[in-house]
Structures are given as C-alpha cells and as structure tokens.
Design goal:
This protein is of the alpha+beta class and 82 residues long. It contains one helix and four strands, in the order E-E-E-E-H.
Length: 82
Amino acid sequence: MQIKHGFMHDEGQGAIAIDQKGGGKNLAQTRLYIFPDTEAEILHLITIGDKRSQKKDDVPVCRYFVNEHRKRKDVTDEKNTL
C-alpha cells in the first residue's frame, strides 16, 4: 500500500499514522494509528497519541497489534485449509 499524502506516515509492519497539524502554535500534534486489512476490507483503529507517546507507547503498540492480528489470521487460515 503506497502512502501519497504528507499527513500519513508508514509506521512499519502495515501500521499507518495519520497526523493532525495546524490550529495554533501551542497545540500538540495528534496522531491516529490505523491498520488497514485490505484483504478483509476492515480498517482497524488502533490508538491515538501525541509526540510524547509516539516512540515509547504508540508505535510499539501498533506493531504488536499488527503482528498479533497476522498470527491469528494465519492460524485461522491454516484451520480453514485442513
């Protein structure tokens, strides 16, 4: 999936951050973290955070969510093929 907008950023492993910018000098920038499961046509809303929580909390949570989602999906797919 290609990201073509400056307010969307790839966070690795399929997670995407959507930035909120503008609105004044002293407002903290907010990010919404999502995972689009294009195969199932489901958009997972994972978490929302700001610059302070980005590295410590938000990005690791997103990557964990995507990894666990894929593991569960692999197990389900494997059961369905048996």
